[in-house]
Amino acid sequence: MPARIPPLAVTAYSATSALGRGVAAHAGALRMGRGGLRANNFSSAPLECFVGRVEGVEAAALPQASSHWECRNNRLAWLGLNQDGLLDAVQAAIERHGADRVALILGTSTASIGASEEAYRRLEDAHFPHDLRRPGIHTPHSLTAFVAEATGITGPALTISTACSSSAKVFASAERMMRLGLADAALVGGVDTLCDSVLFGFNALELVSPESCRPFDARRRGISIGEAAAFALLERADVAPRSPRLIGYGESSDAYHMSTPHPQGRGARAALDDALARAGLREDQVDYINLHGTATLKNDEVEAALLGERFPQRVRASSTKGFTGHTLGAAGGLEAVFSLIAIEQGLVPGNLGCTQPESVCAHQLALQSEEREIRVVLSNSFGFGGNNACLAFARADFE
Amino acid sequence: MSELRVHIEGIGAWLRGAPDWNTLRALLRGETDLREDAPSKPAAAALPQAERRRAPEAVLLAAEVAGQACRQANREPSSMPCVFASTHGELSITDYMCAILATAPRELSPTKFHNSVHNAPAGYWTIATHCEHASNAVTGWHASFGAGLLEAATLVNAEQTPVLFAAYDTASSGPLAEMTRTTQPFGAAFVLAPANDSGTPSIALRLRSGSTFDLLPLPPSLGAPAADNPLNAHALAFLHVLAQDSPARLTLPAASGLLLDMEVGSANR
Asked: Which of A157, A223, A290, A301 is 20 to 30 Å from the Cα of B222, by its Cα?
């Protein structure tokens, strides 16, 4: 088992999703039980399904100096960076530590593939149209390269792309770099946007629900796809005595199947054990678990069994994907923000969309949002290729 | 600035005409040239036969070089975490996806879709080798090799564990090729271990701000694969140094504006 890690402070964080822009919009929507899924109106021939689309992305142009990075995914990233004082917090960290001592580690699965899709729709004589002849937006590092340039961060810059665990794993990579003294702060997070690749791709796998997704409901019919930008700034605990903490993480591989979870949840269990060990936690110290809860038959079955088997009945648990849809490569980051909101605002998000919960975890699922004291949170993220991550956060005064 | 230290216990490489590390090493030492009779596809013996037939090129490449590195290191693939780095991922699938989405989106193949994820090689590798450790799939665009190496070396030092690091890019195809410009598939892999006294080559790595670095010229037959893809060029420069079996210094980019200075100590066999 891995050794305990020194906790890191989360000194700033924000999310932009179908629930709105910034922490207050997200906390407000959770409190009201107001979800962001709507009938799909994305693309020229929309599939009949529900999506978590962010309003106003198309209108959020990048600053003139960054216009060579223009594409929908980077617009969502920029919109997200402009909430909750994130850009100021990053500048303050750069001033405190130096631009080359701040790392940038972002997760994405779509990156700006939407721009490549558009180029293929608008080919001119088998060549990309002139306005899209920009190699930087046709490669998966597009997001990180843009954010590095826009923020002035010049430390290590890495894109992690492990499907739906991408922006959970960024926290682990950042912690290792900081523990070894390669950086003094890290901006981590994830951005994924709606695009034909994921809408028609998950549709081809027959995993898309025709109605709004219903995680952990006995009658669930699959996922609703969403989009989001989420960021967190990590610094050493001594610079921010009151900020919530990243106290652990676990990573594992299922070694089972490319698109189906291990039936006994071996990989999910390994990631959980790893996270608990690094955080120095027992199961009974966990107050809330933000579940991966995609609303596919298999994921929820496996995750519900693990929850029921490993955690006491008093733990509160929910999937927030009924609110935002499955934001894929941004899900780990977005759900880290929900975890931090739970800790800082004493708010357990409800498991929107579920009215007949799987019996094995029915006691633990919070069907409606609840106000209560939350000190320790776990957040699960599982991706294609059997790629798993589990994050642990805690209030600054925990232990 | 902190220094990271790793030992290289095993190396794998694949290039058309140089399908293993021994062949490429001889080539980098000027002792031989590309082999005309070499296979045009990576053998990827680590994968089950059925997967080998249908797996995309990136998966074959990564599995081939990763398998070679583990064999040379005499380490079980299932015993260590892995980091897979690629600038673009599987370019033929990106081309396929964009083309079919532009014309007949509802005909998109579900298998091609799940093979399109950047971590497909990591997924197939962990499935084939029963590796339940952490697996990662990363990119750093023109600094993908250095960024991936830094991530892997960080993991080695933070967790005090051997780590498999593989870097590869596939050939571009279709209209996207004008943007991604990679003409030849290439892959390299390394089993990196914590500092030890096994006599294997060691590397000390340090970060430094900056963006200018010089690479030594490669043998002429390796000019083409290195010319159009920075990951290939940087991996070949790294292998070039390792092939000489003598202490050397090398600088590669780890990000835009960030350099990775490396001091390579020779094997002490």
From this structure: A157
